[in-house]
Amino acid sequence: MRLLLLLLLAAPLTAQQTPAPKPQEPAEAKPAAEEQKQEAAEASAPAPAADENISGYVDVGYRWVSGPAGNFDSYRSIVNLGEGPKLLNLDWSFQDPKKRLFDRLDVRANNWGGDPYNTARIDARKNRLYNFSFDYRNIALFNFLPSYANLLSEPGLPLGAVRPLFLNQRSFDTTRRLMDVQLDLLPGTWLVPYLAYSRNSGEGRGITDFVSGSNEYPVATRLSDKTDHFRGGVRLEMRRFHVTAEQGGTTFKDDQSAFHSGTQFGNRATPLLGQTLSLTNLSEAWRIRGDSIYSKVIVTANPIDRLDLYGQFLYSQPTTDTNYSLAGTGNFALLSALRFYSGQQDLGFAEAKQPHTSGSVGAELRITRRLRVTESWMTDRFHNASSVLLTERLLSAATPEQTNRVFASPLLELNYSQQEVNLLFDVTSRITLRGGHRYVWGDARVPASELAGGGLEQGELKRHVGLAGVNYRSGQRLSANLDYEASSGDRSYFRTSLQDYHKARARARYQLMDSLSLNGSFSILDNQNPAPVLDYEFRSRDASLGLFWTPKGGKRFTLLGEYGRSTIRSSLDYRLPTALNVIENSAYRDNAHTANALGDINLSSIAGRPVKLSLGGNFFVSSGSRPTRYYQPVGRLSVPLGKHVQWNSEWRWYGFSEPFYLYEGFRTHQFITGIRLGI
Amino acid sequence: MAVVALFLSGSLLGRQEPAGQKPAEAKPSEAKPEAAAGPATYVGSDTCQACHEDIHKAFQKNPHLAVETDKKRGWDGKACESCHGPGSKHAESTEAADIVNPAKQAPAEADRNCLKCHLNQPTHAGRLRGGHGKNQVSCAGCHAVHKGSEALVARKADAVNRQCAACHTAEWAEFQRPHKHPLPQGAMSCVDCHNPHGSFLPRSIRTVSANEPGCFKCHGDKRGPFTFEHAPVRLEGCNACHQPHGSANPHMLARQEVRFVCLECHANIANPATAQTGILGGVPPAFHDLRSARFRNCTLCHIKVHGSYVDRSLLR
Predict the structure, then answer these.
(1) Among A60, A118, A383, B178, which is most buried by a count of CB atoms within 10 Å?
(2) Distance (Å) from the alpha carbon of A25 to chain B's nearest alpha carbon
(3) A368: which chain B residues are within 8 Å (Cβ-Cβ)?
(4) Residue A152 with chain B: CB contacts under 8 Å
């Protein structure tokens, strides 16, 4: 961050006189109404200072949070915004007309001051010399919803009775930091070397379960992992072809621990064979170290005007080495030997290696001006060779020590291939038809269930898919697209995999008038696996409709609204393990409505800039297997205070509730006020 | 063989050459060639500026200005005509029909203009597999060619998200659910996970470390390789269980409760018929009483559900 501050201070010194670009401009194909809104938004922003080499703005403010009423842990899991002074947004661009250290430098920062998502980015470039980017993100991840636990103590269940703990046994409070640095040299020339470095690290604590015998105990856990990526390569960009060759590597470390002190009885509420199971002390640790090398070669070529060729070869070989240790005391049970013991000491050593090779080739052939054919083939192959030696010592005052050694060398193999051919025909300049065929095939070998006697299971994948599409556009006013694929599958890996399915998606955008644009989409996926016993059925539907209305160019009022509805229906049979001749059905239903809207009203103007009131919000309501409601109404007021200063205020209400788990709901008002300084 | 045959037949059927790579190869006007009495010629960008001052001004902030100024590219002084074709007839008549307007061309034809220069770049290596290419979403659908650099390529997270959400409304609706990746907060953007130009992986998912799904860039602790892998993670990817855009489940699962996700595969469906179908996981993994509340939250015990370094049952 010192570097960031230094650059912020130093950059204006090097900036000189040239016109600055607008902060944002919409793409040409966006509806005119959207473009107008963007322009209106730019007009309402504080004007840039006279020195146009520097442009941008900074938003600072203070946030107040009421409550929250209800469950604070749920609030932290979903919203997690706190009180206090904030640097909300910073966006500066500097241009140096003398082009000394850089031609242009962009600095951005968002949500600093204790918020859960902090980002910073710096881009610098000098024409034909370098492109440099630095990206930093600091993301706080908190998750503690009480329902994510064994909280229900149901009467009448002899074995499954559990304690009503109301404690999330899979919770975490962690921070993840991500940094990316990339330097491209000689951009825009035919030879572009580049170097990049990324770091991804996470650290924090949480609650997890220690599972032993016929009981599980919630214990504290500490997490710390870090991955460093290094890569470098060269891009060769010629008129008829291009080659990118990249070599990279990663180093990985992951230290996890679980620990506990003091007697607890876990989730099991009933004695086992007359004894109460308990945990007194626990110290468990994983120390994982890994690395990988990887290579990438990408080729594109245009050997003749009618033909484009594409190819990729990708290879990686990640490995891990693990040291594991466990020391625990309490009263534990070994069900397989019907034995109780008071102490356990485990040591484990494991290693895994996963060579992974992928490749693809493709071609686009323009047979005539209107007729094209595309053909692509890809393959993805890897195997995971691993081994573990686990030594387990069970200690007891009443019986001799028992030592178990387990050695395993599980294997996982995947060979996946896909070939696809598409024929595209421009019927007119407005209509394009597409038809094609995709063939997917592969095989996999995975470790089988212990109850199946271990060993390996073999799976097979084979699927022919028919493809079709229609695209219609009428200038920039109307565009519509239909995409369809269907297959009567032959072989699939899992019962939930795509088997007999059809999938369709339609999208349309229509500029009804200059001030009103509409867009909508609809998609459906029907999948079935009617094989005996499996009898799996799945259907999902999504429909959405959006409008953007800017009467009179948005001078007084604009409205943006979207509504979406989605449904999921899943039905499958399963056998009760305790009575394998009984087949039951599991039905899952989810019906969700989502809407968001925002209306902007220009109340009056000060110094030629509008006073703007915005009202709207988001809501999400679902019913079905687990109903949920989440509301976020919002109101904003923006008042210009001068040529370069604007006062912004926002009120937002967060309301979350689940009818089946009322204790997880929360409600809170948030008010934030601050100023935007234009530069 | 089929490709070769198609190519040969195409050569016989071909009526019009695609846009050329050099000024000399360009056709006078591909939009309405019959309207021209003779071939149009190049007039230079200064002529265009005389009428299209606003575009000319905006273009000064556009990285494509390099086409205008860089002699090595072969279009110096003729940047406008590098996409719009020779403009002499249009300059004389001021008729729209006398100049190529990519906005009115079929997307593939319009894209040829862009791909004349941009095809041979690494970001386009997955173009044939990307949904945008297949569904005729042209380059100009996302890139404002005449305007400033931020409009040409949106780089701010909220600008990228706004641009994608303009078409992908259903996907954006998923981000209104309680548990999601932080896109609405502007901490991430769609292009952090997707390459809009197409990718090696389905749904244009980005890759990291050459051929790994982009998810592992941030979730490196789930990468492994593990001694005991959970097969669906490798065979079907993260979205076999997760709804990455947003979910009502705290762990962004595709079903709102864990048991529904796990049960769909681990349904104790041992049967000779499953062996015939080649379905994996056909043998019951355990004898849990699935009616019991204790066994409804599978990942409470199977804490290493993404894969374990030491335990076959993914318990530790």
Answers:
(1) B178
(2) 5
(3) 10, 13-16
(4) 293, 296
Q: Which B residues in the span 221-250 are in contact with A, Cβ-Cβ below 8 Å?
A: 221, 223-229, 231-232, 234-236, 240, 248, 250
Contact call for B273 and A533, based on CB within 8 A: yes
For residue A427, is it left (φ>0), alpha (ψ between -120 and 50) or beta?
Answer: alpha
In the chain, the amino acid numbered A222 is R
- Give the closest residue to B180 by CA, choosing from A151, A116, A670: A116
Whole-number Å distance between alpha carbons of A297 and A188 = 20
Whether residue A288 contacts residue B309, with contact meaning beta carbons closer than 8 Å, is answered with yes
**Which residue from B minimizes the CA distance to A307?**
B7
CA distance A17 to chain B (A): 14
Which pLDDT value is given to residue B18? 33
Indicate whether A26 pLDDT > 70. no
Instruction: Count CB atoms within 10 A of the CB of residue A651.
Output: 16
Residue B84: strand, helix, or coil: helix
Q: How many CB atoms lie within 10 A of CB A454?
A: 12
User: Is residue A354 classed as helix, strand or coil in its secondary structure?
Assistant: coil
Question: What digits encode the pLDDT tens for the residues A234-271?
Answer: 999 888 899 999 999 999 999 999 999 999 888 887 88
- pLDDT for A287-318, tens place per residue? 999 999 999 999 999 999 899 999 999 999 99
Closest CA to B194 of B185, B176, B181: B181
Structure token digits, residue A609 = 């800039």
Question: Per-residue pLDDT averaged across B21-43, rounded?
Answer: 53
Q: Residue A21 carries which DSSP code?
A: P
Q: Which of A206, A208, A326, A221 is nearest to A267 (CA)?
A: A208
